[in-house]
Design goal:
heterodimer; A: two-stranded antiparallel sheet; 24 helices; B: mainly alpha
Chain lengths: 504, 175
């Protein structure tokens, strides 16, 4: 325990270094605005701005992106409340009560509740993160390639079992991501694969950012264009110092639901397929179920804003736990962060704690600072948000498109990849319209090389015996859980069917 | 086209794409099985993953015939006419942005793109339009070329020459 506190102290000191502090500020600031923009969320912001971070050292870069992630979670509530359009799916539940509050002239109260609840969620989750990360990383040091492969299977299985999407389409999405990751030279034999008739451009492979920016930049903006038709109506917000003080006094109304939502959000966030969206919905559901005035939920109950906001912030921190300790991202945003860490020359996973303690503890320390900075910025900038949100979509959209093109070119130095990004963005949009989930594909393209390498290393060391995956206890447990998760939707469907037959 | 038809077409296209990927692996003479003493062949991973894609596409098509998916019962238009226009024009504009980048460079093509989008589609006032059209390339130049030393495409020699003057100006100020 003492060592954790001293390491955390060192991390906090590191995060107060001028460059890191500036990165936290810029990350929170950018995140708040990106999260507040309709159609944009943390994943879009991190994907589009990742290439910009090559300007600074890796620790400062991850601090910036983590702060942006944080800020976007806070900012998501702003558009949910004032526009009735969630900035990202993570803020969907905030609309349920945030919008009615805005319609009845209480937008300031809803915005304050969202900010304070996000702060509570962030604080509780970062404390949980500090407590859980070191022991989990120490445990994961025992992992060999078999365990790594089993863990990857588990990550993919959670998408199938818990994602709640169409199962064959989810599996298809995972497989597409894995196949795209396999394009280029084989990691072991060096033979070119899937280069489509010798196309030189494919020999270097498909960088994950091309897919991520294609889907979350181009595809997402097209999706938003379709759903808003470029027309958005904003509610008036009256803010002032007196109102802020009055709203602060109401914290006791939503402190219990925020606390429960924070703990729930953190643990749900650690699951790769779950993340902030189901966490916020579950937290909202729990708050409504156990509330004395449950029937006022959906009509403008402040607890209905606080509960999902606390949970989605806590989930964002939770999703970083498996990324840092196991090298498995807990959300699409952390999948992109993980890809960024690989570009920076770091190997995410348990060894990170021993090989790059400054990096890990600097990041953890920065999360405490970012949480505090974001709540202050959020409350202070409410009037500015309102003005920025009035920015027409026909100005915002082309700026985002330009950033996507420049971001991809700056990362890969190839115009070919910008065309590929456009193609993948359009394909992602068309597939998404048919209920093909796109997040598993992004996760798979990031994890693809690691998954293949661990599988082949295991099979080579066991001389081709697949039983090697079942002979090691940790690997066996992971595979059994994965099988259970994949079977879960089918078993639950069968049980429901039998019950219905019995009832009939 | 209805959502129902679109789901079937997408399923079939994805099935054919999966077969194409499998054929590509086989055509490149990659081993899709076990190499004695060397472990899994280079083609094993992409081939069997593509086979999995084909199977899941077949699964989706089978579910479409049985009317299991919500999309297979949805007779609404897949993309309504208003969206086709808005999305189509956006995609075409981005495509031309990329094509023109090879000719006149990214900076000039982004200025044309922004002009088209902000003035042509958004119908905003000239003040805002010009602010975006000139502000964005300057911001990109400062961030990527000045701060990150990352040179973006500048097009044919004539257009590249213009930027060499800008670079010279920048170095003159900075030195």
């Amino acid at each position: 325990m003492d060592s954790i506190i001293s390491l955390l102290g060192a991390g906090l000191l590191q995060s107060f270094e001028p460059l890191n502090l500036m990165m936290i500020f810029l990350g929170c600031f950018a995140g708040l605005f990106i999260g507040a923009m309709p159609g944009l969320g943390s994943v879009n912001g991190v994907a589009i701005l990742l290439p910009v971070t090559f300007l600074v050292p890796p620790t400062a870069a991850i601090i910036f992106l983590a702060a942006l992630y944080y800020g976007a979670m806070y900012g998501g509530a702003v558009s949910s409340i004032t526009l009735g359009i969630p900035g990202a799916s993570t803020a969907v539940a905030t609309v349920f009560d945030g919008r009615p509050m805005a319609q009845s002239g209480r937008a300031d109260q809803a915005l304050m509740a969202a900010a304070i609840a996000s702060f509570i969620g962030g604080t509780i989750s970062v404390i949980l993160f500090t407590g859980f990360a070191p022991p989990l990383a120490a445990f994961a040091l025992k992992f060999g390639p078999q365990e790594e492969f089993a863990l990857m299977l588990l990550a993919f299985a959670t998408f199938i079992g818990l994602g709640g999407d169409d199962i064959p389409k989810t599996i298809f999405s995972i497989l597409v991501g894995l196949v795209l990751a396999a394009v280029g030279f084989d990691i072991i034999s060096g033979q070119p694969r899937l280069i489509f008739g010798g196309l030189v451009e494919f020999q270097r492979g498909i960088p994950f950012l091309v897919l991520a920016i294609g889907i979350y930049g181009i595809g997402e903006m097209i999706w938003t264009l379709e759903h808003t038709k470029g027309k958005i109506q904003m509610h008036k917000v009256e803010v002032g110092f007196k109102k802020i003080i009055n709203n602060l006094a109401q914290v006791k109304k939503y402190l219990p639901v925020s606390t429960v939502g924070s703990v729930l959000g953190f643990f749900v966030g650690t699951l790769p397929a779950a993340g902030a969206t189901p966490a916020s919905l579950m937290s909202y559901g729990l708050a409504k179920t156990f509330s004395k005035d449950g029937d006022t939920f959906g009509k403008g109950n402040v607890a209905g804003v606080a509960a999902p906001e606390a949970a989605n912030n806590a989930a964002s921190t939770g999703s970083m736990l498996p990324m840092i300790t196991l090298g498995i991202p807990g959300s699409p945003t952390t999948a992109i962060l993980l890809g960024g860490m690989i570009i920076w020359g770091l190997r995410p996973g348990p060894l990170l704690f021993t090989e790059s303690p400054d990096f890990v503890w600097g990041l953890i320390g920065s999360m405490y600072v970012a949480n505090f900075m974001t709540v202050v910025l959020n409350i202070a900038l409410i009037p500015v948000f309102i003005r920025v949100l009035a920015m027409p979509f026909s100005v915002l959209a082309p700026i985002i498109f330009i950033l996507c093109v420049v971001g991809v070119f700056a990362t890969t130095d190839r115009m070919f990849d910008t065309y590929l990004m456009l193609g993948l963005g359009i394909a992602g949009y068309l597939l998404r319209k048919l209920n093909y989930p796109v997040a598993p594909a992004v996760l798979a393209i990031v994890l693809g090389p690691l998954t293949e390498r661990s599988m082949r290393q295991s099979l080579i060391s066991s001389q081709g015996d697949p039983m090697t995956f079942l002979e090691r206890p940790i690997s066996l447990v992971c595979i059994l859980i994965a099988v259970g998760l994949v079977s879960y939707p089918m078993i639950s469907k069968m049980i429901k069917k039998r019950k219905a037959e019995k009832a009939a | 086209m209805t959502v129902r038809t679109a789901e079937l077409i997408m399923g079939v296209v994805m099935l054919l794409a999966s077969f194409g990927l499998m054929w590509n692996v086989l055509n490149d003479d990659l081993t899709i099985g076990w190499l004695e003493g060397r472990g899994p062949g280079a083609g094993m991973w992409p081939f069997w993953l593509s086979a999995g894609m084909a199977l899941t596409s077949l699964w989706t098509i089978a579910r479409w015939f049985r009317g299991v998916t919500a999309e297979s019962r949805n007779l609404d238009p897949y993309i309504d006419p208003e969206t086709i226009f808005m999305v189509g024009i956006t995609i075409a504009a981005i495509f031309f942005l990329l094509v023109l980048t090879n000719i006149i460079g990214l900076y000039f093509s982004m200025m044309l793109f922004l002009l088209f989008y902000v003035k042509g589609i958004g119908r905003h006032k000239w003040g805002l339009t010009l602010a975006v059209v000139f502000g964005m390339p300057v911001a990109i130049y400062m961030l990527f070329e000045v701060a990150l030393n990352k040179y973006l495409p500048r097009g044919w020699p004539f257009f590249e020459g213009i930027f060499l003057h800008i670079d010279d100006f920048r170095y003159a100020i900075m030195s």
